[in-house]
Design brief:
The protein has 9 helices and 16 strands. It is α/β, with parallel strands linked by helices. The chain folds into 2 domains: 19-186 and 305-356, Medium-chain alcohol dehydrogenases, catalytic domain (Quinone Oxidoreductase, Chain A, domain 1, Alpha-Beta Complex), CATH 3.90.180; 198-299, Rossmann fold. The strands form 4 sheets. Strands 3, 4, 5, 8, 9, 15 and 16 form a 7-stranded mixed sheet that branches. Strands 1-2-6-7 form a 4-stranded antiparallel sheet, with no helix packed on it. A 3-stranded parallel sheet has the order 10-11-12, with helices on one face. Strand 11 (229-233), helix 6 and strand 12 (250-252) form a beta-alpha-beta unit. Helix 4 (186-197) packs parallel to helix 5. The two termini are 16 Å apart.
């Protein structure tokens, strides 16, 4: 259960000093420094980050020397925290609320947020920006007054951060923070891809290409949706035994398996998730393979989930012991060990490494 104690009102409206892990150069180890976090402006919320986990998207952008790589920067976007203070025009959350920041917005006002057809806010669109979503400015400075750039509208590798209220979801404080943070991005993306984007039906067959944290999230979502067969496709056979925990029934190693060209005609969906290591990567296929087979290829951000309505459902399903979040956490470390988390993930030695911020 989350500890939601805080010093109510004492720091509201004032700059805060805290520790943060800063990336000062592309691909170089993060450094722990004292930073200044400004108070929230209108539509903004300052939160005390309890836990943050490391996602491959952080690593992908951290390696980039050119835009959208920007330095110095505070990375991190899978997190959970407690509301420390709120800016003007914020009535959705109050001080002390237990909240999950999400990289996509859910403003609740635009036509897309009001529609069941999309989870992508047209008022505050998804982009890899170094700023806050409503204005090109930062809420972070170092002790020398230098601006520190944001990441994914969250920047959770700081003990305090400022997030737009459209990017925050209030959740049940019964869920432990070292589990709640997983629902802020990767695991939710995987579960949502099966549940919402693919709309997996009971008895379906699901093939998952790549069995990392998101792929296992897809397996979990497929299992919850009643899939009869969940096929893991990966070049590391050792992942099969672990994948069984999440409902994986079959394993295919494309480097050793025999070619099988049998496909269903007129139905079937391919859901594309995540972020390519190369941002200019392209998908290539023969148009006739799509036209004559009736296939669907669909991109999905955050698994097509609407954060403010769908994430609380996932939280409840975990508390009801339906979703297996515990097995996604392979390591837990302190903030000053954050570079170890980067090493473990890049070496393929962990699923999710949870970073305790305090």
């Amino acid at each position: 259960m989350a500890d939601v104690k805080h010093s109510k009102g004492i720091t509201a409206g004032k700059p805060l000093h805290c520790k943060a892990a800063i990336a000062r150069e592309a691909g170089q180890p993060l450094v722990i420094e004292e930073v200044i976090v400004a108070p929230p402006k209108a539509h903004e919320v300052r939160i005390k980050v309890i836990c943050s986990s490391l996602c491959h998207t952080d690593i992908t952008i951290w390696k980039l020397k050119d835009f959208p790589g920007c330095y110095p920067r505070i990375f991190g976007h899978e997190a959970v925290g407690i509301v420390e203070s709120v800016g003007e025009e914020v009535d959705e959350v109050v001080e002390g609320d237990y909240v999950l920041p999400v990289l996509i917005a859910d403003c609740g006002d635009c036509k897309d947020c009001k529609s069941s057809e999309s989870n992508l806010c047209s008022k505050l669109p998804v982009k890899i920006s170094p700023w806050m979503p409503r204005e090109d400015s930062s809420r972070f400075t170092d002790l020398n007054g230098e601006t520190l750039f944001h990441f994914a509208f969250v920047s959770s590798f700081s003990q305090y951060t400022v997030v737009d209220v459209a990017h925050l979801t209030k959740i049940d404080p019964s869920i432990p923070p070292n589990r709640a943070c997983l629902l802020s991005c990767g695991v939710s993306t995987g579960i949502g891809a099966a549940w919402r984007a693919a709309n997996v039906k009971p008895g379906s067959t699901v093939a998952i290409f790549g069995i990392g944290a998101i792929g296992l999230g897809v397996a979990e979502g497929a299992r919850l949706s009643g899939a009869a067969r969940i096929i893991a496709v990966d070049i590391k056979p050792e992942k099969f035994e672990f994948g069984k925990k999440f409902g994986v029934t079959d394993f295919i190693n494309p480097n050793t398996s025999e070619d099988n060209k049998t496909v269903s005609q007129g139905w079937g969906k391919t859901i594309v998730l995540g972020l390519d290591n190369k941002l200019d990567a392209q998908l290539s296929f023969l148009s006739m393979d799509v036209l004559l087979s009736g296939k669907t290829i669909k991109g999905s951000v955050f698994g097509d989930l609407k954060p403010k309505s769908d994430v609380p459902i996932l939280v409840k399903r975990y508390l009801d012991k339906e979703i297996r979040l515990d097995d996604f956490v392979s390591h837990e470390i302190k903030l000053d060990e954050i570079n170890k988390a980067f090493e473990l993930l890049m070496e393929g030695k962990c699923l999710r490494c949870v970073i305790w911020m305090d």
